Amino acid sequence: MFRLLVFDWDGTLMDSEARIVSSAIAAFADLGLSPRSPEAIRGIIGLGLPEAMQALYPGLAEGRYATIIDRYRHHFLEADATPMPLFPGVAQTLTRLRAEGYLLAVATGKSRRGLDRALAETGLGGLFEVTRCADETRSKPHPQMLLEVMGALAVPAAQTLMIGDSEYDLQMATDAEVAAVGVGYGVQGCERLLHYRPLACFDRIEELHPWLLAQSRPSEEAL
Questions:
Q1: Are residues 51 and 146 in the same domain?
Q2: pLDDT band at residue 116, thresholds of 50, 70 and 90?
Q3: Quick check: is 10 catalytic?
Q4: Is 30 a catalytic residue?
Q5: pLDDT given for residue 222 in this prediction
Q6: Sheet with strand 130-133: strands edge to edge
Q7: I want to staple 175 with a disulfide (CB 3.0 to 4.6 A). Which of 98, 143, 189, 193 is the partner?
Q8: Domain assignment of residue 46, given as a range
Q9: Is residue 96 located within the same domain as residue 180?
Q10: Final residue of a structural domain among 57, 79, 101
């Protein structure tokens, strides 16, 4: 049924929430901005950085956002040492899916620099056919990122599945006419994601593989 599996990164494959929050708080403090709560910062995870900062600080001059982003990147990529492990079972699940012939891709709100660094550090880069980042195309929830992934691999929407932990992932999939499943262990829980009518919502990434197997079996009604 599905040939192409497109994964979000932060909150879906990598547990990076704590560093994102701490890096944002430090950047805002460096620049003398009014604080934003951890809950507010978690709410923008998944967006591209310009869209995220505009959501947290609406109405600033355009150049001000660039300054905030630069300071955030300093903390996230250089100054903050908060661990960012892969979620349990991620490497094994991706390796198994790739071995079984699925095409794997990433569509993320991260920058290209940030994603390339994460792929190198985790050793997962060779598993993905295509990756798209928010600084290369339109930010989620706009569907352009997902459309570009499908176009690069010549896979139609009907054979594509989006896997993500946020409403931005699921809205992007809906707007691209792509099926989606949610994961409830990331930034937003299944209760919130179910409003976007994913085909399923998993508590562990390991649940994805047996679910895909079930989708590929003919139903009893068809026999």
A1: no
A2: very high
A3: yes
A4: no
A5: 47
A6: 130-133, 103-108, 4-7, 160-164, 179-183, 201-202
A7: 143
A8: 17-79
A9: yes
A10: 79
CATH number of the domain bearing residue 64: 1.10.150
Residue 219: per-residue pLDDT: 56
d(CA 159, CA 138): 22
pLDDT for residue 188: 87
Q: Are residues 22 and 132 both part of a single domain? A: no
Residue where one domain finishes, among candidates 63, 79, 95: 79
Number of domains in the chain: 2
pLDDT digits (tens, 9 = 90+) for 144-196: 999 999 999 999 999 999 999 999 999 999 999 999 999 999 988 899 999 99
Cα 155 to the center of its chain, rounded Å: 20
Residues 146 and 192 occupy one common structural domain: yes
pLDDT of residue 110: 93
Catalytic residue from among 10, 15, 80, 169: 10
Q: Look at residue 216 in the predicted model and tell me its pLDDT.
A: 81
DSSP string computed for 42-104: HHTBTB-HHHHHHHHSTT--HHHHHHHHHHHHHIIIII-----PBPTTHHHHHHHHHHTT-EE
- Give the integer Cα–Cα distance in Å for 205 and 141: 22
Same domain, 10 and 117: yes
136 with 170, same domain? yes
The answer to whether the pTM exceeds 0.85 is yes
Question: pLDDT digit string (tens) for 32-91?
Answer: 999 999 999 999 999 999 999 999 999 999 899 999 999 999 999 999 999 999 999 999
What is the band of 218 on the pLDDT scale with cuts at 50, 70, 90? low
Tokens encoding 142: 């706009």
